[in-house]
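Design review, sub-item: ligand-bound model
Attendees: FS, YL, KQ
YL presented the inputs for the flavin-adenine dinucleotide complex:
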Amino acid sequence: MGGNLEKDWEVLVIGAGPAGSGAAAAAAEGGCKTLLIDRKKEIGTPVQCGEVVGESLVRQIGLKIPPQAIASVQDHTRFLLDRRLMVVSHEPYWRSITLERKIFDKLLAARAAEAGASVQADTRLVDLEMRDGKVVAATLMHRGKETTVRPKVVIAADGVHSTTAKLMGVTLYPEDTMAKGIEYEMVAKKKLPSGMQIFLEPEVGLGYGWIIPKGPKRANVGLGVIGMEESRRSAILDWAAENPLISEYFDLDKVLEVKSGDAPLPGFLGGPHRGNVLFAGDAAGQTLAFVGEGIMPSFACGNVAGAVAAASVRARSRKKLECYDRAVKDIMGGELEKGGALKDAILGAWAESSITEGQRTMLCGLIMSECIFPDQAEEVLPLITQSSTRIAARIREDIKKRRARAKISVLRHR
Ligand SMILES: Cc1cc2nc3c(=O)[nH]c(=O)nc-3n(C[C@H](O)[C@H](O)[C@H](O)COP(=O)(O)OP(=O)(O)OC[C@H]3O[C@@H](n4cnc5c(N)ncnc54)[C@H](O)[C@@H]3O)c2cc1C
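KQ shared the predicted structure:
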């Protein structure tokens, strides 16, 4: 096995998540000798993700997801705002597919292997030798043995706490732009409502809670919060036990899996590169920052990173790596920029001191569900202090005018 690692690699991809596997497939298809490594013993495991992807994004990217990687499909999303309002959106972005990420990630890595890349699980990047801002050698650890490789291009797809970035001394986004996530995959007491459910409420804080169906009676129930103060386990257990809309379905005694991790939400950073290193996926903050959706953007951006790396190797020109930023803008720029703008608007609403915390979460939820545009937030402020019935009536008018595929109704859980 050590012999295999010692080849004359042209492209080294660190991390076999969606970004890395997308990158390795494209680099191999571009004719490069490509090595894809991941420190995990089994690619895709453990899962640190809600596993849901927007159907419209999947279609836009043109990724064929094999049926065995799909757990369920949802044709709408419900937003539960301060337990007082419910928005049901059938807009294309809010139709979703829940993946089995263990299967999905492994299949993407298998596709990279089929495209010609070498793939090694249980292999970790431990050191980089830099010269003039470029990586000249990478030290990899596999089964206690170190191997040094000298790739022409490195693709850092090693996730939110990127080892590559740390070894290079690069900070692409600060810690405080990350959300902490925790999630239980659970079996429900009774059949779940069909759509994905998103909860914005003071009990959650700056972020949101979710029920992401994985089957009629199985779901990921989780929280993603910026500035989570308590331990992740207490946060999810306390919230799920206390929220009547969760406890109606879950008893917390049927937990199949615990998943936790951090999600980068810096907003749009384009396609960052340093020397001969391209950063892709979470390592580059390539998520839709208002919700933290990163699977599809990471795959798409990783894919262009691999193609750009191959073009650079073929042309023997490092200058070609500069095309990466443009290529990311072309393929995902619109979505990533919009995600960043929505996140900024949500942060603005959260900082609004003239309204209560509950009202703030309602405002954030109306922005997130796109019932109001970010630039309407100020205008809506006086409305948000009124009764749920009044708010619903006014938002209903807006939805109608805009012909949005959404409905709003009043809940009585306060
Ligand atoms: C709680 C939570 C819920 C989420 N829910 C969703 C969701 O529902 N939908 C969605 O789209 N996104 C979601 N995300 C975000 C999503 O998981 C990420 O955006 C996505 O996985 C990014 O893909 P990636 O390939 O960049 O990184 P990752 O999937 O994190 O892959 C990085 C890989 O690099 C490997 N690695 C790291 N360091 C090294 C090293 N030194 N050597 C070798 N390998 C290394 C890791 O083992 C890992 O396999 C969620 C995130 C969190 C934390």
